[in-house]
Each structure stands twice: as C-alpha cells, then as structure tokens.
Amino acid sequence: MVTVMRILLTNDDGVYAPGLRAIRKELQKLGEVTVVAPVGEQSAVGHSITLLTPLITQEVLDDEQKPMGWAVEGRPADCVKLALLELLKEPPDLLVSGMNAGSNSGINVLYSGTVAAAIEGAFFQCTSIAVSLQYTKPKPLDFAKAAEYAGKVVAQIVRHPLSRGSLFNVNIPSLEKGPIRGIRVVRQNVAPYKEQFDRRVDPRGRVYFWSGPDFGCPDPHPDTDETALREGYITVTPLHFNLTHSVMLEKMKDWEWTI
After folding, report:
1. pTM of this structure
2. CATH fold group of domain 5-190+221-252
3. Looking at per-residue confidence, does 9 or 211 come out higher?
4. 175: nearest Cα among 138, 143, 223
5. Contact 136, 175 (CB under 8 A)
6. How many CB atoms lie within 10 A of CB 131?
7. CB 79 within 8 A of CB 36
8. What does the pLDDT average to over 201-221?
9. Beta bridge partners of 247
C-alpha cells in the first residue's frame, strides 16, 4: 500500500498570493496538499495570534474550481493552530509556509509571519519548512521557476530521517541576478541591520514616521544566509524556537540570590 504524504501549506502573503499558488503545484508532486492561509497579507506580523476577535474561515477553490483548503481571517500562526486542531481530519506529515515574496533571512526571521507559521507547526511536532524568494526589483517575480527550485529543496529535506518538530528556513536567491549556483546549509545571520524612517508632518501638524523600504544588512557575517544569498545560493538553515541562552544559564547557577 502506497502512503501519500499529507502536506499543510500556509503563508503570510494571503491565500490568493501567487507564491502560494506556485509552490502548491510543486508540492502536489510530493503528496496531497491542503491550504490553510490568511485571507489577506500578514507580512511582518511575527508570531502574533488572534485572541479578541473570531477566526472566520471560508473554503476556497483552486484555478480548476476544485477544493483547495480554507482562508482564515487571522494571522499565519492562527492558520496553523486552526488547521491542526480543527480543520484537518488527520495531522500532516509536513508543513510548508510560503512561498514568501521577499527573503526571510538574518534578523528578518524574527519578524516574519512566514517563519512564524513554520515555527507554530514545529510547536505541534510537525516537520516544518519556511520558503521565501528574494527579490531585488519590483514585482512581478518568477514564482513558477522559484517554486521548482523550492520543491526540489523540500523533497531533499524530507528524504532524510528527521526528528519530530524539525524546523528549516529556506531562501531562494533573486533569479534576476543570474543562474542559481547551488544549495548551501548555513547559519542565520545576526549582524545588525540598517533601518530608516521617513519623518513627515500631516495636514494637522502632527509628526508621523513611515518605515523606509530599505531594510538591509550592510555588513553581514561570513558564511551566513545573508552572504550566501548575495552569492546566488539557495540557503537552508535549521532553526529551533528554544530561546534559552544555555551558556548564560550555566553561569547564573553560580550567582547568589536573595529575597
């Protein structure tokens, strides 16, 4: 008896995003894909969840008018929770979050709704992979070609024996920079990023700030996701969500504490 892999697909760009539609076609080569994704864009919402408003859901169809999954009026992490606890009849063998329009590398990982959805899957002990496509020019992006690469990377990851809750972050470099040079397994870059805000004044004289579009890392650490992407490599970074500082934990055991 042939066992079909069950795949849960989500994202933070919205259920109708072209990146999700493109990678869904590639994932269907690996198994049965069910989509549970936000109704609209939820970029940079991180790991926020909805507590004070209802999570309205609606079934959605694919381009062939066949059932594709559900659209959720909530955050990416909400979508994963709802899928795993309520919507899916059986737990998935794999969760894929993406394909995001824009890379999620370096400290962007901390803000990313794409990565947060994958982390939520890992919470539930599901092998989870976040997938993003870097871009250096305005859209449209070649999601179809990028999805081919992403599908191959996902297939190679799941080919190996993995512990429950394994978590990976995959970034496809901008296809406009030239041919993909290969795949590199690298660590997350944690060098500081350069940010700027545009200071403006509204018609009533109130000062407001608008986040600038340039959010980059001018001096990334070597052998990280940032540098490998710049060199034209697909990056694969294993992640975990345990934020405990183990070295400091051991040092603090020798501290004297009083109350």
Report:
1. 0.94
2. Stationary-phase Survival Protein Sure Homolog; Chain: A, (3.40.1210)
3. 9
4. 143
5. no
6. 32
7. yes
8. 87
9. none
